[in-house]
Each structure stands twice: as structure tokens, then as C-alpha cells.
Amino acid sequence: MSKPDEDGKLRSRLELIGHKVLVLSGKGGVGKSTVAVNLAVALAAAGKKVGLLDIDLHGPSVPKMLGIEGMPLHGGEKSIRPFVVGDNLLVMSIGFLLRGSDEAVIWRGPLKMGVIKQFLADVEWGPLDYLVVDSPPGTGDEPLSIAQLIPDADGAVIVTTPQDVALLDVRRCITFCRQLNLPVLGVVENMSGFACPHCGKPVDLFGSGGGEKMAADMGVPFIGRIPFDPRIVTTADDGRPFIIAHQSTDAGRMLAEMAAPILALPGRTPGAGKAPEKTGCGPFRIAIPVDKGAISAHFGHAERFLIFDVDAGSCKVAGSAELDPPEHGVGVLPEWLKAEGVTLAIAGGIGRQARDLLSKSGIEVVSGVTITDPAEAVRAWLDGELAGTDTECNHDHGKGCGHGGGCGKAE
Ligand code: ADP
User: Fold this and answer.
1) 96-109 mean pLDDT
2) Are residue 215 and residue 275 in the same domain, yes or no?
3) Same-domain status, 322 and 378
4) Nearest residue to 34 via CA among 21, 48, 23
5) Residue 168 sits in the same domain as residue 134
């Protein structure tokens, strides 16, 4: 049985996420992880802040597909930080917890459930536009517990290959979603046809069109067909997302187009600087640069930093501390704040490079605030009323940056 505080923590994390999409398949090896990775990359390329959670306990392949296999994980005592890829893709995989990629994961049922729950509750995603979950295949306990732990998921993208046997499994998968009231966002038919490298004529390796027909029969949307392309295997092995490496190929275009129905999902997308809805808002660590107790106009040159801890659930400040920043240097402050577990920075003025480095560290930035009292700014943020103007660094006290050319200076 889960503890109530664990449930609260999980709820608070999920409340900061605009859309949650589960990628499912009736069985393994059909390209579920390939779809999950490329979907997450396509959403991130569309400017969304995206989390990719690889919870496929039996074959966590996301780190390899993104070239981040074996990377060390960081975190505090009670949470782990996702790995940041590019500008706005955060990744967490059960694979990061394994010693080697060949290590088998043999966990008994209850332990598996605990790991899945911990992944969801303890990963410091912060506010996200989308969370894409690469779920274990099939319709067993693991996808079931994921669906139950994310009760407000937007729905599932179901990946299949066109053969009859895979289609049988996918029918079971759709029935499974219906039993759980999990909307089916659509079916992707993968490895659908193959352009012969010699004559260019299409070859139906596993048949083609079965997924579309099955989707029509079962009354669920069809997202599209991705052809078999051997380069999908090589780019995955090299750790490069296919839609980046081969964007102009048929498979690259089709994989990128999968994002369209997901981008069109209606509903709340948490925007930068807006407080999450009032049912819960943390746990959060907010950092504010201060000079003589007032919010500093120079993020990188502030005397001290005030740190506010916001309690999960109650949306109230649970504590605060004042810290001395480390010596000035490029990228030093973002690294330091990340190590302190900060998830949001509220600033007067901030350089573009510092802002980029903070966001790469998973720290959201609200800048250009005119309120000078830090506690008041935090209260306004929690009430969703903090206005930021995205002001860049203000070393000249409003007369321009002083670093020349629109201030790209790192802080
Ligand atoms: P799953 O997550 O369903 O187990 P993966 O995404 O790991 O499947 O894909 C299984 C293998 O098939 C991987 O080696 C992957 O690179 C390859 N693959 C996936 N889709 C295609 C495709 N359309 N064409 C060629 N190979 C593919």
C-alpha cells in the first residue's frame, strides 16, 4: 500500500504536466520505443518542454537511442533529476539505474510497481508541456499500473506492425485501454512496407494497411504508417533520433508527423512563469537573486540568493534560506542552483546565455519582474499573478546591457 505523502508527491508532480501520453504496444519489438523517442523529439523540436520517461523494465532502450547510455544520474536524497537533452527534452529511464545494458531486470511484481511509482513521483520534472511515457509492452501488470498511476493521462498512442499476429495483440491493447477509460489517441503502423534499395519499388515485408483497417474496425483514430527503413536501426544504435538524422526520408517525415495530433490535444499547457493550478504546486525550490534584501536587477552579480521551498499540495512557502553564490564564472550559477535542487528562478534582469543554461538545467526562469520584495514575488507567482517581461540582463540599470549587442553574456 502506498503512503499518502507518496501519493501527494506524485499528484503534485503530475499536476505540473500539461499533457501525458502513454506509448503502448501489444507486444515487444514493434517499434514502441522508436515511436516514443521520435515523438518526444518532435514535440521538443516544436518548442514544447517535454519529458520522456522510459519505464520499459524489460528493455529500456531510450538512453541508447538518445546517445546517453551509462550517464550518471544526479539528485538529492529524495529525488532524481532527469537527464537534459538539447534545449527542452528531459529524459529519465530505468536504464540509468542498471549497471550495464546487458543486465537483466528481474524484479518481483510488487517491487516493479514500487519502481514505477517512484519513477513517477521522484523525478524532478518540474513544469512540462508534455510527458511521453514509453511503457512496457503488452497488457499486463506494468502498463496497467502506469495507467492507474496517471489517471488523467490524455491517452495512449498504440504502436503495431501490420502482421495479423501483431494486430491481434493490438486489439487486446485497445480493449485494455477501454477497460481503463484511457482514450486511444491513435494507432501507428510501423515497419509498414519497404522501399527496395535496388529497384525502389515498395515491398510489403510484413504486409501493409492492416493497422489502418484494424483502427477503422475498432473505431479508433489512425495516426500513420512508418515504412521499414534499415537506417532506423543504425541511427538508434548510434544514439541519434531518426527524425533529426534523416528528416527528409519518408520514415523521417512520417515519424515527425506523428506529433501533429498530439500537439493538437486540447487543454492546459503550463506556460513559463504561470503558477500551476491551485490543487497543488510543488515541491518547488525557487531561487531569487537579491541585493540588500531586494530582488536584484543583475542575476549574475547578486550579492546573495534567497531560496524558497514551496510545499506540495498546500501551495504555501514551507521555508526559506539565504545562500551565498559561488565565485562568478560562466555557467557556474546554473550548475550551483541545479545542485541546490532549484526548479524556478525569479529575476529582475538576466542574460540570455544564463537563461539558456538555466533552462538546460531544468530551471524555469521568470525575469523582468518589477516587484522588489522577494517574498511578495513568490506569493504573486503562486497566485499566478507574477508578471515577467523577459528582461535580459540589466547591468546598466535600464540603459541597456553594457555587455554590448543584446547581452548574451553568461552569468
Ligand atoms: P519496442 O520498443 O517495441 O521493443 P523498438 O523501438 O526498440 O521496439 O524497435 C525494435 C527494433 O526495431 C530496434 O532495433 C529499432 O531500431 C528497429 N525499428 C523500429 N522501427 C523500425 C522501422 N520502421 N524500420 C526499421 N527498423 C525499425
Assistant:
1) 60
2) no
3) yes
4) 23
5) yes
Residue 90 φ/ψ, nearest 5 degrees: -110, 135
pLDDT tens per residue across span 110-130:
667 777 887 788 899 989 999
In terms of domains, do 204 and 320 share one?
A: no
> Which atom of ligand 1 is nearest to 230's Cα?
25
Distance from Cα 128 to the centre of ligand 1, integer Å: 27
Centre of ligand 1 to C-alpha 179, Å, is 28
229 C-alpha vs ligand 1 centroid, how far in Å?
A: 10
Number of domains in the chain: 2
Q: Is the pLDDT of residue 293 over 50?
A: yes
pLDDT 10s digits, 219-252: 899 999 999 999 999 999 999 999 999 989 999 9
Strands 284-291, 304-310: pairing kind: antiparallel
91: number of Cβ within 10 Å: 25
48/188 same-domain check: yes
Please state the atom number of ligand 1 nearest to the C-alpha of residue 235.
16
**Whose alpha carbon is nearest atom 9 of ligand 1?**
31
Check whether residue 144 and residue 191 sit in a common domain: yes
Element (H, E) at 222: strand 222-228
Predicted pLDDT at 276:
40
The size of the chain, in residues, is 411
The confidence band for 381, taking pLDDT boundaries of 50, 70 and 90, is: confident
Query: Same domain for 257 and 283?
Result: no
| Domain extent for 376 | 270-411
- Three-state SS at 86: coil
Ligand 1 pocket (Cβ < 6 Å) reads 25, 28-34, 59, 61, 190-191, 226, 228-230, 232-233, 236, 251
The CA distances from residue 268 to 130, 261, 335, in Å, are 10, 15, 30
Q: How far is CA 62 from CA 38, 96, 241, 296, 301, in A?
A: 10, 10, 10, 41, 39
Ligand 1 centroid – CA 30 distance (Å)? 6
Q: Give the range among 45-54, 121-130, 158-167, 294-303 with minimum mean pLDDT.
A: 158-167
**Are residues 276 and 354 both part of a single domain?**
yes
100 C-alpha to ligand 1 centroid (Å): 21
